[in-house]
Amino acid sequence: MSIWWSLHLRREAASVPLARRLLLGTMETAGVDPDISYDLSVALSEACANAVEHGGDAGHGDSRGAYRVTAYLDGEKCRIEVADSGPGFPAGPAVPDTPRRPVPVAAVPYDAESGRGLSLIEELADHVTIGNKPGRGGAVVSFDKILKWQKGAPLMAV
Predict the structure, then answer these.
(1) Which of 112, 132, 143, 113 is nearest to 55 (CA)?
(2) Cα-Cα-Cα-Cα dihedral of 87, 89, 91, 92, to 10°?
(3) Is 122 exposed, middle or buried (0-12, 13-18, 19+ CB in 10 A)?
(4) How are beta strands 66-74 and 2-10 bridged, if at all?
(5) What span, in angstroms and rounded, lies between the C-alpha atoms of 57 and 45?
(6) What pLDDT is attached to residue 133?
(7) CA-based nearest residue to 30, from 77, 70, 81
(8) Three-state SS across 11-37?
(9) Taking the CA atoms of the chain, what radius of gyration do you get in angstroms?
(10) What's the Cα-to-Cα distance from 121 to each of 48, 116, 157, rounded to whole Å?
């Protein structure tokens, strides 16, 4: 079983629940365990909220006012990627061929109003890659998680 979808969304707060509901609906239809679906939907919401807040200059009326969400359910894994056209992350020391974080995520108090998103994504997903799009600018956050299935799931991987 393989499912793939991609959305091109405006950098508006209303786009975040739209992406989350599409992911939850897809996973429910496929028969993914609700706890796994919930974890991925929270991680997706955080990545989308970051793209909306930091992902470019929406005032130009072009693609800088948008971001892209792509989700793959392939076999036993779900991979989600959120890419924007903003300034990207500040550059850090490069290590060839190694997924890396451009800047370390500092410990953020649990009651902070902002700054917890990337840490939360790392806690909820099995593997996270955070970086910049080569050449064109913008940030890319991708994460994946091994799927668990409900008994009798209609689209369960075999």
Answers:
(1) 132
(2) 180
(3) middle
(4) antiparallel
(5) 20
(6) 85
(7) 77
(8) CCCCHHHHHHHHHHHHHHHHCECHHHH
(9) 16
(10) 11, 9, 25
Per this entry, what is the length of the chain?
158
Bridge partner residues of 77 (DSSP): 74, 146
| Rounded Cα–Cα distance for residues 83 and 148 (Å) | 26
Place of tokens 């997924």: 99
Half-sphere exposure of residue 137, counting CA atoms within 13 Å on the CB side?
A: 9
Query: How far is residue 117's CA from residue 37's CA, in Å, rounded to a whole number?
Result: 18
146 by DSSP, 3-state: which? strand
Residue-wise pLDDT for 6-39, tens only, equals 999 999 999 999 999 999 999 999 999 999 999 9
CA distance 98 to 156: 32
**Per-run averaged pLDDT (10 residues), the chain, 158 residues:** 91 96 94 96 96 73 76 93 89 48 52 75 95 85 95 70
Q: Which amino acid is at 75?
A: G
Cβ–Cβ under 8 Å, residues 142 and 129? yes
- The tokens 């429910």 sit on which residue? 28
